[in-house]
Amino acid sequence: MESDIVLAEKASVLENIFGEATIHGQQLDFICPECQRRKLTINLKQNKGRCWVCQYGFRDLEFLVKRHSFENLAYWRKLSGKEDKSDLKKFLTLGKAKQSGEFYDKVVLPKSYRSLYLHWDDFYSQIPKNYLSRRGITKEDVLKWQIGYATEGLYKNRIIIPSYDKYGILNYFIGRHWGRDIAHQDRYLSPKVEKTKLIFNEYWIRWGDPIHLIEGVFDGIKIPRENIIPIGGSSITVESRLFRKIVEGRAPVYLGFDYDARKKMNWVEKQFNEYGIRVYYIEPEKDRDFGDRTKEENLEIIMKANKMRNKFDIMKDKLNGGK
User: Fold this and answer.
1) Is residue 150 part of a domain?
2) Which pairing describes strands 22-24 and 27-30: parallel, antiparallel, or unpaired?
3) Which of 48, 86, 97, 260 is a Cys-bridge partner for 102, taking CB atoms 3.0 to 4.6 Å apart?
4) Domain membership of residue 227 as a residue range
5) pTM of the model
6) Considering 190, 225, 258, which residue would you say is the last residue of a domain?
């Protein structure tokens, strides 16, 4: 049983987050962050709370604090007598540096790199144009993603898709061979960088808006939405800059992984839920990736994800007496 001093401190933390409370016996009433009615009732001794209008609430108040005020989480855990695994200061400074160039090793485009958009009608551009056309990628996509190709050297006969940091400085690029008979392990070639520090095309991301996490860059090109981030695989670590930026932004996340990565997608969802981030599934198809579908098909699938239940919905049902 927590002492009255600890309960008073917890009440103070909640008032810092939700504003002044109205006290009714052992219960505190706050303005609900979801429906804006003063019906969010919290019982500190029972460690739970619920809004009696919209049913928003949690069985564990730590989760409520984690979602709405991450900076107060460490102190809340200390009051609860728990080991502080969040290490907020360390978490918020992961990957930070005084200058952009300290995030990653210096990257330069291949010497023979040519902008496909600027050389659209050139003879040497016909093969990469045809390759991209077969994949449903248009001239507008080429301009948006600044797609080019290499004519000589290590990246010869490869589509080049660059990535830029928040300052517009090159931090990575994808080199995809356009040959039909290339072995699977030789199709992609990219510079070696520290992936936990990399955010693909961070310069166009608005962190307060919904984030779409996609496995590959060609999948991302085929999704007609903003805030697309290819992660170069099917996992994201809590220690990465990308995870930190998403938690700081508090925006919902749409996960669009391939069908064979469903288990990993569940693990990623769990990590984001631990920090109070809403997660939506973009339901994968068994035989086709995003890059294999049309933009219209991908948009339809994403729109369906808005209607899918997530852990927050399930929790509301449980608090409301449902199953």
Assistant:
1) yes
2) antiparallel
3) 97
4) 205-315
5) 0.65
6) 190
